Every structure is written in structure tokens, then in C-alpha cells.
Amino acid sequence: MNLYQNKRALFYVLPALLMVVIFVFLPVVLNFVNSTYRWNSFSTERVFVGLDYYRRLFTDPVFYTSLKNNVLYAVISLLFQVGGGLILAAILEEKFMKKFQPFFRTVYFIPSLLSLAVVGLLWQLLYQPDIGLINDFIKAIGFKDFSYAWLGNSHAAIYAVILVSQWQYTGYIMMLFLVAMQKIPRSLYEAALIDGANRFHTFIHITIPQVKEMILVATTFTVVGAFKVFDEVYVMTAGGPGHSTEVLGTMLFQSGFRNDEMGYASAIGTAIFVITLVLSFLQIKVSKTGQEQ
Amino acid sequence: MINKKTGLGIVVMITILSLLFGCSSGWVPTGASAGKRVQLRFLEKWPDPEYAPYFEQVVNEFEQTHPNIIIKMEAVADDPMKDKLRTAMGGGHLPDVSFSWSGQFAKKFVNAGAALDLTKYLNDDPKWKNSFIPSALQPFQFNGKNYGIPIRLDGKFLVYNKKIFKKYQLEVPKNWQEFMELCKKLKNHGVTPILLGNQEPWAAIHYLTGLNQKWVPNQTLMKDYNPKSGQFTNRGYVKALESLKSIQDKGYFNRNINSVRHDFALQQLAYGKGAMMYLETEEFTDLAKEMTDDWGIFPLPDITEGKGNQNYLTGAPDGFIISSKTKHRKEAIEFLKFLTGKKSQEKMVKMNHWNSAIKGAVNKNNALKQTVEAQKYMEQTEGLSQWLDTAMDSQVADVYLHDVQPLLNGKMTPEQVMKDVQKTAQVVRKH
Fold first, then answer.
1. d(Cα A272, Cα A276) in Å, to the nearest integer?
2. In DSSP terms, which residues pair with B253 in a beta bridge?
3. B303 and which of B145, B176, B237, B324 could share a cystine (Cβ 3.0–4.6 Å)?
């Protein structure tokens, strides 16, 4: 019997559909409506402003700083988390590492279990210029008077913050790849080795094509994550110094909950939604995901 | 006919739907099981383990003496409180008695008609009204009416290490010029004159709160801090930024101020790694633990050529407002009277080491020597200049907060900062 002809089946998916409509689609629409009004928690009336907030958004230099930082976040995360995670996983799957794999797997994975607020505070301490471990280490290897303000310098701060996410999530992505790699039939490698392929060849021609699906999942995961990032940045720098580490998430929070401009915050929310939606669509299109060979 | 499977489906769906909608607050039975007892929702700002016990105790005592009232207390920390109050307002569920900062922040509730006018209740009980320090009540007054009841005062003072001052035979400065000379001497002795942890920029903003007060005439300040008429064109604002920047340019602060946390700087002071730091009176307890008695305080020195009122102190009361929608006005007032009663306030001073909004609650027996001194300053002051980030419109304050780090980094000039401020003030004025 065709599932679509069965009216009762429709009845069963109704609760899930309702949930998605109420908690996903409705908020998206409401958010857009909200962005066309000037309002905040304290206002007694909502003033219709049309698309004014979008006009302002596209001329706001902070928006472009945030966007740039989000893109930086995405690019670096792709390189380190997806690229690095893949290589790490391949190394751990090598024969000579098999014995130590459980140990390294655990060590690399632990950071992703910690709460973001804890990680943010931890790294804030590490980055402290005069008593932080990082500067102390650099001093210990010979640079006596070294004192660099990692989070206080407007050029370095964003990289210092991004580094923390790499430290936290590379192990997680690596874990995903390990699971995918363990599904690859050994016979493929054996056949290749008989044909004279070396380790590098097997990595390029067997491992990567075999975990392609996981690469695409991990890519979507990190890129969308990079555009939604908030906690790490907020805990470590709150967007400072100046606006140099501002990302779309912190900008939205600041506008809505500190500056009392809920309309503007909603407009930023819509921008984030459009960006992540387009990126997800692109990735689904490019990867034709779900069609495992 | 409904068969078994469909019946099951309906049950499952009802369960899921009730899970979805069942969480709304309407389901909580309020006071129904407690007979005629009235329930007051009370929101305060101190979940910290060193401060929370006081509120638990005082609420307990109140409930014992007022058996018909139950207090449902909730504590939310300083920063999340800003979101909590906004979401409570947005959701239309402001607690009966809730915390509020004074100044512009309280005014938002007043403008939205969410804060109850308390003038009548204060006038009906002159003894209660007169028990407050005038400078503590005043920041909750708008258009001649009272909207908030202050519970404590929090002032800002320069704290100095007495040992270091004694070692180099230095004295407390009487004005800004002497202050700068003092810093110079300290620096020549190889001591960091002032510690500043400006990773979160409110630390530097607190300097500006005082410096604006010293440089800009009071009338102008009042006009500019009002979102409807703010222009910020007075030359004094630039002067204030220059004064702050000059401390940095002359090297009187520690290194890397913008990436040092405020609490780390405080530790450094406690360990004698610097001579002075600008601190709130609520932080005196932390200091007393580490520094025993080797420290003294003085207010931000006067700027002789400044056009502002030099007799103001930087600081603000923290207090409570009553929701205009509350059904239990009488009980809420009763509770606030209990909180600000001398007995509760003396207990607060003793347990939490805070400065009180009530006359005579701070004394030698229940407070630190320095707290008593600070209290004296605050009782005698002409007025309080409230924290810049709560005293002015939040959008304008946001510009200050974001520009002060680049200013100290040398990436912006005082004129550029003020240009930013003026631009935002103009946008705010129009709305």
C-alpha cells in the first residue's frame, strides 16, 4: 500500500509537523515581521519602519566586520576541523597507531565535552598577558620580556578566539571520520597495496572517496556552526576590543538585549537565517547528500 | 468508527500536544493550595554564595512575622539580569518586586508604565521616607515622583596601598594635578601607579563616569544623558576622555590593560603589585581578606579647571521597583519596608559588607573601617553620578563601551570617540 494513500499515516505525522511549524517556521516568519517594527521590551507601542533596519544593516560597518569574522571562522574551521580532523583520523587508523588509538581518541575528544562557558574562561586565563600560561611558555623558551595581549589586540584577538574553537572541535570531527573509516572494507586497501600503492595513495584514492559523505556532513556542520557562533566569543571578548571580534551572533545579542533595539536584532537574525539557509542549500546541491553509493 | 489503532494515535497525539502547551505558567497553581496566603514574586540580583544567605534569612524572617505572605524569591546575577528583566517585560510577567538599576534603566520601566508610583506610600510614612540617605532616593526619582526603593549604595573610590605610600612618603592627593604628580613619583620608584583590568570595558567607563562629572556642567550632563535631548557637544566630554587617555599615555596604568580581567587586577593590588586601583565599595570585602588593614580610600580627585560639580561622587544605589500590575501592592510595600528597616539593613551590612541606603545602618561595629569612611562620603555628598552605562541611553553608552578600548590602545582619538557618540545620540534623539 502506498504510504501517501493512507490517510491514517498523515494523522501520525501531524504532531511532528505541528511542532516544526510552531517552533521553526512560525518564528522565522514572525522574526521577519518583527524586523519591520521599531520596538523593544519596554516600548508601549510598535512603530512600523518597513525595511529601514535592513538599509541600516547594509551600511553598518559593524555588520561587515562581523560578517568578515564569521567567514574567517568558517574558513579556518574548515581547514582545521574538517581537514585536520580527517588527517588525524587517518593517522589513528594506521596500523602502527592502532594500539594507541583509544588513548588519543579520548584525549582529542574530551575538549568537545566541556561546556562553552568553561572553555571560554579557561582560555581567557591562558591568554592573560602577564600570568597566562601561553606567554609564560614563550618566556620559558627564551623570550624573556615577552608579553603579548592576545585578546587585547584588535588584530590578534579574533584569531585567538577562533583557535579555541579549533582546539575544542577538531577531536569531535575526527571522531566522526574514525567511525566512517572503520566502515571501509579492508579488502580495498589490501588490493591497492598489492598493486603497489603507498599509504599516501591509499589515503587519496580510497579513504577520501569512501568517507566523502562524512566530509560533506562535517563541512555543513562546521560552516553553519561558524555562522551561528556566539558563546565562545561572548565569554572571551564580548566582541571587543572595540568591535574587532564581533560576530553576527554577538551583534544580534548586543542590539536586542543591551541596546534595546529588538527590530534591528530581528533584522540581523533574518540575515543570519538567509546566510545559513543559502549555504545549506548549496552544500546539499553540491553534495547530493543522502545518495550514498 | 474509531478502531484501536486510531484510538492509540489520538492518545499519543494528545500527550505530545499537552507536552507542547502544558509548560505555560498558567498551569502552576498559585496560592490555591495555600489558602488565603498571598504570594509575592521577588527578583533580586545576588545569587553569589557570599551574598545569597542574607536574602534567604531576611525573607525567612519576613515570612515568619507575616504568616499571610509567601515570598517566591529568584536570584539572577548582574549580567544575565539585563536579559531577565527585558524578557520579563516583553512577556508581560514582571515580578511583583523586582531589582532595578537606578537612572535611565529604571526610567525605562517608568516610561513603559510598568513601575508603580511609590510617592504616596513614602509620603504616608514620613519616618520611612526620612530614614533614607537623600542621594540614594534621588536616582529613582523621575518628574518629582519616586519609583524605586534603594536597598544599598555602591560607590567608587580609589583604593591605595598604605604600605607603598608610607615607604615612599606619599600623601593622598587633593586634586587631579597632585594625583598625576603622585603617579609620576610612584612610576619613578618602579611601582605601577594604577592597576586597571579593562578586558570588560566598564572598568574604564567607571573612570569616565567620574571624569564627565568633573569636566561637564551639571545642567549639560542632565540634558545630554536624557535620550530625548542628548547632544554631547560640550568640550568637557573630550577633556574627560583626554584625562583618562593621559593616564595611559604617561604609562601610569599596568601593561596590557585591555586584556587583563578586572578581578586579576584586584588580585595584583592585593599582592602589592601596584599602588592604587579604582574600586567599588562592594569589592572592599575581597580586598579586606587579602590586605588586612593596609589600605585606604579617597574619591576621584577634583579637577580644578573642570566646569562640572566637584562635590559629586561616582556611585549609585541599587534598589527595587514594584510592578504596576501587581495585585498585592500593600504586601509588596510591607516587604520593602521590612528590607529597608534598620534591623535588616544592619544585618545586610554585617553579612554582606555593603554600604546601606539607610542612615546610620553602617557603623564601626558591623562594617569595615573603609566601608564606614565610604559611607560618610556618600552621606555627605551633594549627589551621585551614576554609572555611565546605566545613566545614559543604552545605545549611546554602547558607543562609549566599544570605543574606550581603541581609545586606550591609541587607535582612536578623544575627538573621534565623541563624534561617534554625537552621531548615535542624534539617532536616539529622533526616536
1. 6
2. B194
3. B176
Length of chain A, in residues: 293
Query: In the structure grid, which three cell numbers stand for residue A120, read together?
Result: 571560554
Q: Is B22 on the interface with A (CB under 8 A)?
A: no
**Which pLDDT score, from 0 to 100, does residue A46 have?**
86
Distance CA B294, CA A203 (A): 67
Q: How would you label B267-302 residue by residue, b for 16+ Cβ within 10 Å and e otherwise?
A: bbbbeeebbbbbbbbbbbebbbeebeebbbbbbbbb
Strands B295-298 and B141-142: unpaired
* pLDDT surpasses 60 at A21: yes
Q: pLDDT tens across A190-218, in order?
A: 898 888 888 888 888 888 889 888 898 89
Per CB-CB distance under 8 Å, the chain A contacts of B261 are 124, 128
> Between β-strands B383-385 and A47-48, what pairing exists: parallel, antiparallel or unpaired?
unpaired
- Nearest CB among A11, A151, A241 relative to B409 is that of A241
Dist CA B378 CA B281 (whole Å): 11
Cβ within 8 Å, pair A260-B108: yes
Q: Which of B169, B133, B171, B130 is nearest to B151 (CA)?
A: B133
Q: Which residue of A has its CA nearest to B92?
A: A41
Tell the residue number behind the cell numbers 575538549, with chain if given: A111
Q: Does A24 touch chain B (CB under 8 A)?
A: no
DSSP secondary structure code for residue B80 in this structure: H
CA nearest to A245 within chain B? B402
State whether A241 and B405 contact (CB < 8 Å).
yes
Contact B98, B43 (CB under 8 A): yes
Tell me how far apart the terminal alpha carbons of chain B are, to the nearest angstrom.
62
State how far the Cα of B19 lies from the Cα of B243, in Å rounded to an integer. 59
What b/e string do you get for A79-112 counting C-beta neighbours within 10 Å, with b at 16 or more?
A: ebbbebbbebbbebbeeeeeeeeeeebeebeebb
Instruction: Tell me how far CA of residue A139 lies from CA of A145, A160, B264, in angstroms.
Output: 7, 18, 20
Q: What ipTM did this prediction achieve?
A: 0.78
What value, to the nearest 5°, has the Cα angle with vertex A274 and ends A273 and A276? 65
Tell me the three cell numbers of residue A33: 515581521
